[in-house]
Design brief:
heterodimer, A: about 800 residues, alpha+beta, 10-stranded mixed β-sheet, 8-stranded mixed β-sheet, 24 helices, B: about 220 residues, alpha/beta, Rossmann fold, 6-stranded mixed β-sheet, 4-stranded antiparallel β-sheet, globular
């Protein structure tokens, strides 16, 4: 029986291959966008985990210099003699084959077993490093692939592959690493073995400049990047929901068209439960086929987007993520699972109707999906409830999750309200219409609305998301560009290779008449408000007083900062952690200072504080003193840059001019939103497919509605033109409805989601030219979607229309 | 002559090969007269009606309605002919589902530019549709829908009414009642009526009768 019934059910799809194609394409696209985003997230998280495993950061405690700088290597010998089981590590950044890498210098002999060396080639990594000549750099195979087979390290060092290393990281012998970054005799921290002797001397007695930092697991990077991944997931989910509208549309139509088949099967003795199970099996089969295609497409999409995501995570968070996608079964399976779940959600209403359909129900399809007035009222009520929920979330929600819930509530509320609004507008237009054709046009359009509303809702979601994200990005771009002009006031930025060179550099610069000021840039990594951040020391100079972009400040803020009596904090600490002017900021070593002002700080999600240079040097004497900002006489920057290179042999990357710094910052900014932009464009494409799917499937039912009007004297060509006009008009109305929704979305993104995700808030600006472009695109998509069915209608043979009337021939 | 059909042939391709549905049919109908077209299923009655309405084109032969050669017209010309000169009544009613009864009644008259509210109101009253004007087709019974379809065809005051089994979907009593009203109205308007029917009883109520068998007038 099952085979016969299944055959009867599947015959529907054989007879309607276009409808089947729409269903599979819709589900495959939805799954692709979702699983693609999941693949990117999984790759990034795997990279974080590998980074955390490196040298046991996830499970081994460390001794770190209290002043944030580096510590003399001889402390290692002191600790060893005092009974501590430790291993020194030096961290820095070097260029390998033109690409900047994170360098880890390790002492292979003293390194603990779980310090990540088991990731190095077999035979005992410690032995390998100890036995090998020092000029070897180990890197992950995908990092080496990226660098190319002929790449070598600095000074011609050999590059060797080691599985399990994080991307963008190279590991070297400690002494070689010290030489490479000019930190002879220095280490960054000491890794503690898990089993420490009870008899060891107290830390304060042996190395009072060090403090214990507990293993953090992979929490730091994961927490920093959580909002970014949440944003990505939200856009993936939005695309998936838009794709589900297509599936819902195709499945709903297939169920309605098969009412007669269901009735016949029931009448022939197929039990209702059996019918429902077989329908479920049919849906599962379709979901699996489409899901597999979707996972494949998602892999391709993720592979294309991953380099941008990796660049964003690196530029914004300093998180190194592999630019190469690994095939992970987990996201493939989750893609299939979501395809199945999505299909079931999309088909739930249809299955429920079949379950309740009496055996003697009318075999003819009802006016499919025809929303009764009561259904519209329920829909309007749900839209209102969601709008109220959105208001509540906007008022009281503060986290990233509540921000995204707010976006979901706004979008869903608007989508549910759309058919209600359109129905009202069309009823009004019908009342105002003059002439039989116009009256019929409006009334007929209103009748088509239920069949098209799912596609129009999908279009609304895609357009609103485009307007919202577009407004946010453009507002950001405008503000960010102006902010960079203020913030990057110095003409040149110079970094010395070591402390000795830095001293010589300062002496050389002091004597030059083309240099107006040398402003040291010093900073240490520190915990601020319970999260990783940075503290900067700044000189008391007009460059800061006149240009630094302060959002709010006390009277005489710069004087108090210069005197070491107060600090300035960035907007991230102000918005995310609730620190305001007058509050006290806790600093390392247990002291605190009042906040004198707040500055805007875009392109960086971390908390930052600024204090006077003297106060900074007193607290953090070990902070590197290598970077300098130079104020240069007008038109003399290039000459000074050349002179610096000639006199000190500085590599080009050690000198950055203002334009270059701005370009780098803008590039990081552009990459930050490149992925969301791509997902947005794909979502709009999916909405276009949804519209095409709805029109293609409805066109079959349209003949019965259009044939009488044709018989009464309207030509097929005119009917076809009216069909296109109807779709374009509905798309235009949807676009007009999407405008305010998109602007509300932009506000929510700028004022709530971004504040939670990145800690900054920007003034919203509007860009009508972008709207015009998007509106034109939406109308073109609608016209293209309507063109196919309309062309078929215009060219249909009279016999096709006559079938509607003919009971005999 | 209101309707003049001369040597019309029509064939279709089907799974069994080419089927000749009409094989040289000739027929005339004068203004104010009614003609019943009878025949077995598949004899070509509806096909002939569709050719007259310009809904389809014959393979050969000539058809003219109110002096206008249907066979020489293009798509737009035939659409204009249906608007101006012909009223169609279908077995399946084929009302416009999105329009109310009132709007359906007025629809063709307005398309033809001959809309007279008083006339439509009078037709509605005579067809017993006064209390149903604000309803939609799906809210009507079969008999009510067919009365609306007849009213729609007559409201435009066409010269020729073409009715394809207008009572085929109705029970006998309802069918008789609907036909009575249609014949009254057609007679009052002085229009010609060509009605396809299976029923010899209904055919007997019209002025003349033509029987189609094997694609020819018997």
């Amino acid at each position: 029986m099952n085979r016969a019934v299944m055959g009867a059910l599947l015959s529907h799809w054989r007879a309607r291959p276009a409808q089947l194609a729409m269903l599979v394409v819709g589900l495959a696209l939805a799954t692709a966008l979702w699983s693609g985003v999941q693949a990117i997230n999984a790759e990034a998280r795997a990279s974080y985990a590998r980074a955390a495993e490196m040298l046991g950061a996830d499970e081994l405690d460390r001794l770190v210099p209290a002043d944030g700088g580096r510590v003399a290597q001889e402390v290692f010998a002191r600790l060893d003699a005092a009974g501590w089981r430790v291993s020194p590590v030096l961290e820095g950044r070097i260029a390998v084959a033109g690409e900047e890498m994170r360098l880890l210098g390790v002492d292979a002999v003293s390194a603990p077993d779980r310090a990540g060396f088991d990731a190095l080639p077999s035979g005992g990594a410690a032995m390998m490093l100890a036995m090998a000549p020092p000029e070897i750099l180990f890197a992950a195979p995908d990092t080496l692939d990226r660098l190319g087979p002929r790449a070598t390290g600095p000074e011609g060092a050999e590059l060797r592959a080691a599985e399990g290393l994080a991307p963008g990281v190279v590991v070297a012998d400690l002494r070689y690493a010290q030489r490479l970054i000019g930190a002879r005799g220095l280490v960054s921290y000491l890794v503690l073995h898990p089993d420490q002797p009870e008899t060891r001397a107290p830390l304060d007695e042996v190395a009072s400049a060090l403090r214990l930092r507990r293993a953090s697991g992979s929490a730091d990077l994961a927490r920093l990047t959580e909002s970014f991944h949440l944003n990505l997931t939200a856009f993936g989910l939005l695309s998936f929901v838009v794709g589900l509208f297509i599936v819902r549309s195709a499945v709903g139509l297939a169920f309605e068209q098969r009412r007669g088949v269901f009735r016949t099967l029931r009448a022939l003795g197929v039990p209702l439960a059996r019918l429902l199970w077989l329908l479920l099996a049919e849906l599962a089969l379709l979901a699996l086929v489409a899901g597999l295609a979707g996972v494949g497409l998602g892999y391709v999409m993720a592979a294309l987007l991953l380099p941008d995501v990796a660049a964003t995570l690196s530029g914004l968070y300093g998180a190194e993520v592999s630019g190469t996608l690994a095939l992970r079964p987990s996201w493939g399976l989750s893609g299939l699972a979501i395809a199945l779940a999505g299909t079931l959600i999309a088909a739930a209403q249809g299955l429920w109707r079949v379950g309740r359909m009496p055996v003697l129900a009318a075999a003819q399809p009802r006016a499919w999906g025809l929303a009764s007035a009561r259904e519209l009222v329920i829909q309007a009520g749900a839209a209102l409830a969601l709008a109220l929920a959105a208001l509540g979330l906007a008022r009281w929600g503060e986290s990233s999750v509540s921000g995204l819930a707010l976006l979901a509530a706004i979008l869903l509320s608007a989508a549910l309200a759309l058919p209600v609004v359109l129905s009202g507008l069309l009823a009004g237009a019908a009342r105002l219409a003059r002439g039989a054709v116009a009256e019929w046009f409006w009334a007929d359009t209103r009748q088509q609305l239920p069949g098209l509303s799912l596609a129009l809702m999908a279009l609304l979601l895609a357009l609103a998301a485009n307007i919202g994200v577009g407004t946010m990005v453009q507002s950001f771009r405008a503000t960010f560009t102006g902010w960079l002009d203020q913030r990057l006031a110095a003409e040149l930025y110079v970094t010395a290779r070591d402390a000795e060179e830095a001293r010589a550099l300062r002496g050389w610069l002091d004597g030059r008449e083309d240099v107006r000021a040398v402003l040291p840039i010093r900073w240490v990594e520190a915990e601020l408000a319970g999260a990783p951040g940075r503290i900067y020391g700044v000189a008391d100079h007009a460059t800061y007083r006149e240009n630094w972009p302060l959002l709010r400040a006390q009277e005489g803020a710069w004087d108090r900062v210069a005197a070491g009596e107060a600090v300035l904090i960035n907007e991230q600490l102000f918005r995310r952690d609730g620190l305001g002017v007058g509050d006290r900021l806790a600093l390392p070593a247990g002291e605190d200072l009042p906040v004198a002002g707040i500055y805007s700080d875009y392109g960086n999600p971390q908390g930052q504080a600024m204090m006077g240079l003297e106060a900074f040097d007193g607290r953090f004497p070990g902070a590197p003193r290598l970077q300098h900002a130079l104020r240069v006489a007008p038109g003399r920057s290039d000459a000074l840059s050349s002179a610096l290179q000639d006199s000190f042999g500085l590599p080009p990357e050690a000198i950055t001019d203002q334009a270059e710094a701005k370009a780098t910052s803008l590039r990081i900014f552009e990459q930050t939103f490149a992925v969301t932009g791509a997902l947005n464009a794909l979502t709009l494409g999916v909405a276009g497919v949804a519209l095409l799917a709805a029109l293609a499937t409805l066109s079959e039912m349209r003949l019965a509605q259009l044939a009488p009007v044709w018989a009464l004297g309207l030509t097929r060509a005119r009917l076809a033109r009216l069909e296109v006009a109807r779709t374009v008009m509905l798309a235009a109305l949807t676009f007009v409805a999407a405008l305010p929704v998109g602007l509300i979305l932009a506000w929510a993104l700028l004022a709530i989601v971004n504040v939670a995700a990145f800690g900054w808030r920007l003034p919203m600006q509007v860009f009508p030219a972008d709207w015009a472009r998007l509106g034109t695109l939406a109308l073109a998509v609608a016209a293209a979607a309507a063109a196919g069915p309309a062309r078929r209608l215009a060219r249909i043979a009279p016999a096709g229309l006559l079938r509607v009337f003919a009971s005999e021939r | 002559m209101l309707l003049d059909i001369r040597d019309v042939t029509k064939s279709y391709d089907s799974a069994e090969g080419r089927i000749e549905v009409l094989r040289g049919v000739s027929l005339q109908l004068a203004a104010g007269r009614s003609l019943a077209l009878t025949g077995e299923s598949g004899s070509g009655k509806s096909t002939l009606l569709h050719l007259v309405a310009g809904l389809d084109a014959p393979d050969a032969g000539e058809i003219s309605v109110a002096g206008r050669a249907v066979t020489g017209l293009g798509d737009a010309g035939r659409a204009a002919l249906r608007r101006d000169a012909i009223g169609l009544v279908f077995q399946q009613f084929n009302l416009v589902p999105s329009l109310t009864v009132a709007a359906n009644l007025a629809f063709q008259a307005r398309l033809a530019g001959r809309y007279e509210p008083e006339r439509v109101a009078e037709i509605a009253a005579r067809l017993g549709l006064d209390g149903l004007k604000d309803r939609y087709p799906e809210q009507l019974s079969g008999g009510q829908q067919q009365r609306v379809a007849i009213g729609r065809a007559l409201a435009a005051a066409p010269a020729l009414i073409l009715a394809d089994e207008p009572t085929g979907n109705l029970d006998e009593a309802t069918g008789d009642s609907v036909l009575d009203r249609m014949l009254d109205l057609v007679a009052d308007q002085g229009a010609g009526l060509l009605m396809v029917t299976h029923s010899p009883r209904l055919a007997g109520r019209l002025d003349a009768r033509a029987h189609l068998a094997a694609g020819r007038i018997a």
